[in-house]
């Protein structure tokens, strides 16, 4: 008997990333920022598919304002945003500004956008705790880039509700700590399932900087083809169903793109059978898996 999730169940495992709504974002982005009409169409399709959570940030261009205009009063969606850590009064002010742009009185989650500023100004955490106590936000946490950051937060006893981390076939650095976070009651969201589109690139058409990855990307495509699983579906399922993960954040710039992601549900069993082989593709060279270390796009 099949145990593959329905499309709607799978949609509830996803959060819709909205950096694309406010910026021209991603390694493979050729079209630039989508129009307001295109964003409205994506949100309508997401709602129809059963997707309930939108992920944004104050630094994603005009993404917050667009979401406020198009989804601010739509109770079908819950929202997460991200802010820079700083003095508590500054954090409270920035949260108030985000709430205003999003046209919401309460958010599902607020994350600090990076770990280091929080470590340098730990009083910033008090502002998020106060917002949670006041009912402005249900879950508070941090967007992380390195496993040692999660380890530090656990060791320091931070009362996290939510973290977001990168996780994909090449970047498996967080694999060991995610189940520990989940066991502490932390809701784990993973981003970068496609590594900003790098994992979808033809191995023969890689920029020179990424050529050392060609053999792994070739193996990845061979595994997907042999199992008859579309490559995007395989990558998204690998991230969304990793141990300890509650949701995968996936960014789209069109309705077609959204449906390509949702169709992954029907391949869940086949993709899970490939997990051991995919685990073996982990890349240990940080410069290839951390986008901030990549050379500028030409």
Supply the key terms.
42% helix, TIM Barrel, 298 residues, alpha/beta, eight-stranded parallel β-barrel, 8 strands
Structure description:
It is a single chain. An 8-stranded parallel barrel has the order 1-2-3-4-5-6-7-8. With 298 residues, it is of the alpha/beta class. The longest helix has 15 residues, at 88-102. Strand 2 (53-55), helix 4 and strand 3 (78-83) form a beta-alpha-beta unit. It has 15 helices and 8 strands. The protein has one domain: TIM Barrel. 44% of the residues are buried.
Radius of gyration: 19 Å
**Uncertain parts:** none
Total number of helical segments?
A: 15
The SS-based structural class is: alpha/beta
CATH class identity: Alpha Beta
Number of strands: 8
- Mean pLDDT across the residues is 94
Shape from CA axes? globular
Which strand order spans the largest sheet, edge to edge or round the barrel?
1-2-3-4-5-6-7-8
Q: Major sheet, described briefly?
A: 8 strands, parallel, barrel
The amount of helix comes to: 40-55%
User: What is the CATH topology classification name?
Assistant: TIM Barrel
CATH superfamily: NADP-dependent oxidoreductase domain
Strand content: 5-15%
CATH architecture: Alpha-Beta Barrel
